[in-house]
Amino acid sequence: MSQSKPPSMATVDGQKCLPRSVFYVGAVRGKRNAKRSRSGRVELPAVVSSKTSRMPPTAPTVSDFRLALGQFATGVTVVTAERAPRLVHGMTANSFTSVSLDPLLILICVSQTAQLLPLVNRHKRFGVNVLKDSQQAISEYFAQTEDNPDAERAFGIRYRWTPTGIPLLEDALAHLACNVVASYIAGDHTIFIAEVESIETRAGQPLLYLRGDYRRLS
């Protein structure tokens, strides 16, 4: 029986090697698209390079944005400000975060259409009240746009004032009395950066918000 001759060797930089398109059968077992020549050699098809699609990415929608941010669990606060002498307006908010430890700075984001906006712009101070897990009804009340003294009495909502005139919500998990040091209009909200003048905390568990619903620590 005659035997096929091995493929001729190519020389690259003084070294002998097989041509790039030629391989022994044993080296390409399982290659479906390999072709065998009469001499027993196997030639592989040329590699087709893939190209990145030039189609622009789809811009995210408001719904996409809300769905994505809804995966981020937050606490729930009520931001309180003076609306008239000894009267308080509150707004439920979870767009609240710490900014700095030196000095002690926090920020809140307030919609351009919120009733709270002109109050904070006018007085340059506000309170942040972190709610307990038993205060969901209070959160839902302050998510409304209208102040209702009868509803506040029914929910047992009471306020107290700091010596500097900042209203705070009684019986919250934590209180921060804040003075505005800077504000920035960003899209349809205003960002207020404020320095914390006083802090109080109490025992209890926080009310949480995740995926469009209230949650509690298990």
Reading off the top of the CATH hierarchy, the class of the largest domain is best stated as Mainly Beta
Which H/E pattern describes the elements? EEEEHEEEEEHEHHEEEEEE
The main pleated sheet reads as: 7 strands, antiparallel
Helical/strand content category: mainly beta
State the CATH superfamily name of the largest domain.
Electron Transport, Fmn-binding Protein, Chain A
Report the span from N to C terminus: 80 Å
Task: Tell me about this structure.
- The chain has 218 residues and is mainly beta.
- It folds into two domains: 18-43, no CATH class; 76-213, Pnp Oxidase, Chain A (Roll).
- Helices cover 13% and strands 40% of the residues.
- It is built from four helices and 16 strands.
- It has a seven-stranded antiparallel sheet. A three-stranded antiparallel sheet has the order 5-15-16, with no helix packed on it. A two-stranded antiparallel ribbon has the order 1-2.
- A hairpin with a 2-residue loop joins strand 15 and strand 16.
- The longest helix is centred in the first third of the chain and has 8 residues, at 62-69.
- The model is unreliable at 17-32 (pLDDT under 50).
Blueprint (SSEs and pairs):
Layout: E1 10-12, E2 15-17, E3 35-36, E4 42-43, H1 62-69, E5 74-75, E6 77-84, E7 87-93, E8 96-101, E9 104-111, H2 116-123, E10 125-130, H3 136-142, H4 149-154, E11 159-161, E12 167-169, E13 174-186, E14 189-201, E15 207-210, E16 213-216
Antiparallel strand pairs: 1-2, 3-4, 5-15, 6-7, 6-10, 8-9, 9-14, 10-13, 11-12, 13-14, 15-16
